[in-house]
Amino acid sequence: MTELMQAPAPTIRGPLRGIYAGNTRSVVMRGLQVMARTNWVVVLTGFFEPVFYLLSMGVGLGALIGTVEFYGADVPYAAYIAPALMAVSAMNGAVYDSTMNVFFKMNFAKLYQQMLSTSLGPLDVALGEILLALFRGLLYACGFMLVTTLMGLNLSWTAVLAIPAALVVAFGFASFGMAVTSYMKTFQHLDYVYFLMMPMFLLSATFFPIEVYPAGLQWVIQALPLWHGVDMIRQLTTGLIQPSILIHLLYFGVMIVLGLWFTTSRLRALFLR
Amino acid sequence: MPAPVIEATGLTKRYGEFTAVDGIDFAIEPGEAFGFLGPNGAGKSTTMRMIAATSTRTSGALRVLGFDPAEHGPEIRAQLGIVPQADQLDEELRVIDNLIVYGRYFGLPLPYVKRRAEELLEFAQLTEKRKARVDGLSGGMKRRLTIARGLINAPKAMLLDEPTTGLDPQARHVLWDRLFRLKEEGTTLVLTTHYMDEAEQLCDRLVVVDKGTIVAEGSPASLIRQYSTREVLEVRFGSARNAAAAEAIEGIGQRIEVLPDRVLVYDDDGEAAMSAVHERGLSPITSLVRRSSLEDVFLRLTGRSLID
Question: Which CATH number does the domain B6-217 belong to among 3.40.50.970, 3.40.50.620, 3.30.870.10, 3.40.50.300?
Fold first, then answer.
């Protein structure tokens, strides 16, 4: 018989005490264990979507369009939309994981109730789940990067920075997505999310420059997170880096912090009331 | 005398207008098997959730293992074993992995958790199901796995919410046997139940709860002594005639309760009460003399049956 070991008491002090136990790792490991066994096919399908867009629009339409102007330089059309599709793929990976998967775990598998019956706090769970969504975003980003590199669509060495940038994008969407999911009661509610994502995907200067819009509409597009992701990654893969990249980073920084705070307080309201 | 493991004074939980738990006091000693006995909706599960720091109290004082649950949820849960009413197992993981992963949530080292998981599987009599999928287990197996899982962190107290509800009699006895062993090893058990036989079997001491308040407290035997007679005579006259018959047997025994399907006559000597009924010229369809149970205590205290 093994000598019994008591669970270590969480040592977190300060304002996070009671909501964080410093054991996010166990949540992530559980997710990876499940992903390795059951979900990898789903992960794979998410990778192909942007590749098909790239082939049909970038290569196909690109032959008709030629080049597009981006910060004063002419960029081949395929190289113009490839970074945008990378941002979209990071967004999709993060959003699917933090909405559909989280919804299932929350309402059917009762996974979070289980986790919150242990010494884990809601912030451990929220961070862990978001990191898992991020991991998926990372897989998509790396896979897509490989494809665009082989196709010669990365115009500068700074393109390698597109991978961490895609992670930042995924982090922002995942932390917000999970908070939004916590309000959903039925699977139909998830459709609202996809209904919003579709126009954002098509209109956030993904396939054409933002200058085609009238000034007022440009402001609306620039308020949306995907535009910041697209412009940031496009600056990196084309090497046409502007000071505005800092604004994009700041935008996602705020989104991540707000999303985490929001998710944690929602988990607390739902499971620790 | 050691400090209580769990101590509550004036513990109250309100959801909007509804008061689920209405100012209850109790203290649970180390090594004790303590029960909350009451019907569904009495506030038992809410009380358990407040103890487990997964629900915050509205008012009153609560100390669990020396901590205030409102401030120290993770610290408290690190030392508790929680067995919720619905099993809530991780269906995406195999049986053994349910234990290992759960142990990791507590921050226990992997090699230790792996070794301990095998021992707990044996305790739960599930070693053969080691690699099985959780959704293929029977109700009793799932419950045993949930209990094994709750033991992975070597808890100072085990919280069991309706541990045998929904199980067949054989599965219940297997489970009771496992819980007895835990009790013998000195684990503090806190359980809720609406089965009086379960409370009598497992609890050293219990409180009877109804509508969010405690209506009585004591050991099963002392509660029966205090609130009931030694024996009970149950007579049935047919549902249409029970009320009329009850009037006719008025005065026999110490107390009479009329239920829709039968009349209960409380008397220390049930056989004597039966003779008295026959002497009055009444002939019940069926009659039965039995010892008083907690069910009778509950009926006496609330005027209602435990299981509606």
Answer: 3.40.50.300
